Amino acid sequence: MIALDFEGKIAVFFGDSMTEGYLAGGYANRWSSLLCAERNGIEDNQGVGGACLQSTVSTLGCNRAWFDVELVPEKTSAHGRLFLAYGTNDLLINITNLLNPTNFKLTLNRAVLGCIEKGWQAEDIVIHTGYWFPNLGFSVGECGVTQAPTREIADAYVQAAIDVARQQHCVLADVYHAMQLAPNLNQMSAEGLHINQVGHRFVADFLKALDYTPASDVITPPAGSFAVRGRIARLG
Questions:
Q1: I need a surface site. Which of 100, 106, 153, 210 has the fewest CB within 10 A?
Q2: Segments of 96-154 assigned E as strands
Q3: Is the pLDDT of residue 26 over 90?
Q4: What is the DSSP string of 93-138?
Q5: Which 3 state secondary structure label does DSSP give 102?
Q6: CA 224 from chain center: how many Å?
Q7: 96-131 per-position pLDDT tens digit
Q8: φ, ψ for residue 34 (rounded to 5)?
Q9: What SS3 state is found at 118?
Q10: Are the beta carbons of 130 and 88 closer than 8 angstroms?
Q11: Measuring CA to CA, which residue among 87, 85, 113 is closest to residue 99?
Q12: pLDDT tens sequence across 137-180
């Protein structure tokens, strides 16, 4: 097992509003800040509210922020790990022929390769699978889209992230399934849309305890995981 210790190095975090720290009760309480404070790291948080991994420029006038590898710093001896935490807003927009799990997987794979070109090793990159909430309705009509994502589509996004982590031998942080099995899951969001301070604390603790050994392409389903039918609230 490889335990997490940033050893005073910079940890870079890319993602959406939950990476940015919305509803964490202050930036010091967001999961990335807690992780760095408690594992000897220097935080570089690049989270942007509403951000997708996939480009939304041509998405029915819905021009969201999206992941841009040009913003990823060149890896230096001062850098430790790079976290990619996307998928929630890609799921929200859910346009079958544009933003979908298949394209998400291709885009995430390209993102990892782009980071590697900037000097990051695959084992430096942590792929975060996103957040899980039970039995919540997903608001439709976002950017003119009327297709409501289902639990099955959410699971497909998560599986895409898992597949890329395994294929590229990055570190897999399966927050989605960890939350699903957490006994205090119903305390992790006050409004059913974003993780709250309890949720940020949970994610930080999960990442602190995670084995940072690179993922294997030998697929082993998460222990005790199961599919739950339903709909998901807008996150991010």
A1: 106
A2: 125-128
A3: yes
A4: H-BTTTBSHHHHHHHHHHHHHHHHHTT--GGGEEEE-----SS-PP
A5: helix
A6: 21
A7: 556 788 989 999 999 999 999 999 999 999 999 989
A8: -60, -45
A9: coil
A10: yes
A11: 87
A12: 455 545 555 456 678 888 999 999 999 999 999 999 999 999 99
Q: Does residue 192 sit within a domain?
A: yes
CA distance 222 to 206: 14
Domain that holds residue 137: 10-209
Contact 128/211 with Cβ under 8 angstroms? no
Total count of residues recorded for the chain:
236
Considering just the CA atoms, what is the radius of gyration of the chain in Å?
16
Report the C-alpha gap between 162 and 118 in whole angstroms: 22
Q: Identify the band that residue 81 occupies on the pLDDT scale cut at 50, 70 and 90.
A: very high
Give every CB contact of residue 221 below 8 A, 6+ residues apart in sequence. none
Q: Give strand pairing partners of 127.
A: 84, 172
Of 168, 13, 97, which Cα lies nearest the Cα of 160? Answer: 168
Task: Count CB-CB contacts under 10 A for residue 102.
Answer: 10
Cα dihedral: 171, 175, 178, 179 (round 10): 180
Q: Is residue 226 part of a domain?
A: no
Predicted confidence at residue 89, as pLDDT, reads 80
Q: Which of 6-15, 41-50, 57-66, 186-195 has the lowest mean pLDDT?
A: 57-66
Q: Kindly report the pTM of this predicted structure.
A: 0.86
pLDDT > 90? residue 218: no
141 assigned to some structural domain: yes
Average confidence (pLDDT) over 4-32: 95
Number of domains in the chain: 1
CATH number of residue 185's parent domain: 3.40.50.1110
**236 in a domain, yes or no?**
no
- Alpha-carbon 11 to chain mean position: 15
